[in-house]
């Protein structure tokens, strides 16, 4: 096995790293897609909750109206029954008592009637609130679907870009010395998609720590790959990889 030409290998790695930065960035964005979609859905579900609670409260009032109408019918029945009994009473005292009973039933009846009227008003208001909320929700649903579609389309575009990049990467990486590629990829996955960094103003581009002159000298020798003492990424000099 021949010794790789380090300078040439570095030039290949620079190209590979350009692609890998994009690949890592696209993968990071793709991983966010389900989180974004879930948040969007939750936001819409929360808006549905307002509509549901308004609808429920309207139904409760309608149920209460039915109950009150039942009570009203019972009172009317009671009044009719007591009025029918009036003719069969023997004493004036019994008669007066029955009349008082009828009056009391009538008073109860008129209270229930007022309650029913009040409920009917409230139900009318509730119905209009439910209608308004339903319309608003229709608008929200459209916004939700539009936003969802945008995210899904972007995700598809990213997927296509990723596939293209990965195809190009496969070809480019086949040309790199196997051991160097292995080392590069090991660092790449351990260091968030950045394995190769340049030395800028005597500092590591990856971690910004100072790179000693001796290390820069070693890079320039091109005997083997030199890594940063702080972040362990492979170092290169921009001016030495110009085509
Ligand atoms: Zn570093």
Helix/strand layout:
Elements: H1 6-85, H2 92-173, H3 178-190, E1 196-200, E2 203-204, H4 213-221, E3 234-236
Parallel strand pairs: 1-3
Antiparallel strand pairs: 1-2
The protein binds zinc ion.
How would you describe this protein?
By secondary structure, the protein is mainly alpha-helical. The protein folds into 2 domains: 15-174, Helix Hairpins, CATH 1.10.287; 195-240, no CATH class. The protein is 76% helix and 4% strand. It is built from 4 helices and 3 strands, in the order αααββαβ. It has helices at 6-85, 92-173, 178-190, 213-221; strands at residues 196-200, 203-204, 234-236. The chain has a 3-stranded mixed β-sheet with strand order 2-1-3. A hairpin with a 2-residue loop joins strand 1 and strand 2. Helix 1 (6-85) packs antiparallel against helix 2. The protein is rod-shaped and about 130 Å long. The two termini are 26 Å apart. The model has no long low-confidence stretch (mean pLDDT 95).
């Amino acid at each position: 096995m021949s010794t790789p030409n380090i300078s040439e290998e570095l030039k290949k790695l620079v190209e590979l790293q350009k692609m890998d930065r994009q690949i890592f960035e696209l993968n990071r964005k793709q991983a966010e897609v389900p989180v974004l979609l879930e948040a969007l859905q939750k936001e819409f579900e929360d808006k549905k909750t307002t509509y549901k609670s308004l609808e429920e409260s309207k139904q409760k009032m309608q149920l209460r109206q039915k109950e009150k109408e039942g009570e009203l019918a019972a009172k009317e029945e009671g009044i009719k029954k007591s009025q029918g009994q009036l003719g069969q009473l023997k004493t004036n005292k019994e008669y007066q008592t029955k009349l008082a009973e009828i009056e009391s039933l009538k008073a109860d009846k008129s209270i229930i009637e007022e309650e029913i009227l009040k409920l009917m008003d409230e139900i009318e208001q509730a119905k209009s609130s439910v209608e308004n909320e339903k319309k608003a929700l229709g608008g929200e649903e459209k916004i939700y679907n539009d936003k969802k579609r945008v995210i899904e389309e972007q995700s598809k575009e990213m997927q296509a870009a990723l596939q293209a990049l990965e195809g190009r990467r496969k070809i480019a990486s086949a040309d790199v010395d196997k051991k160097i590629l292995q080392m590069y990829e090991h660092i790449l996955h351990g260091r968030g998609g950045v394995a190769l960094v340049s030395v800028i103003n005597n500092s590591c581009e990856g971690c910004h720590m100072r790179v000693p002159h001796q290390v820069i000298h070693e890079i320039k020798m091109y005997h083997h790959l030199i890594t940063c003492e702080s972040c362990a990424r492979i170092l290169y000099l921009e001016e030495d990889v110009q085509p």
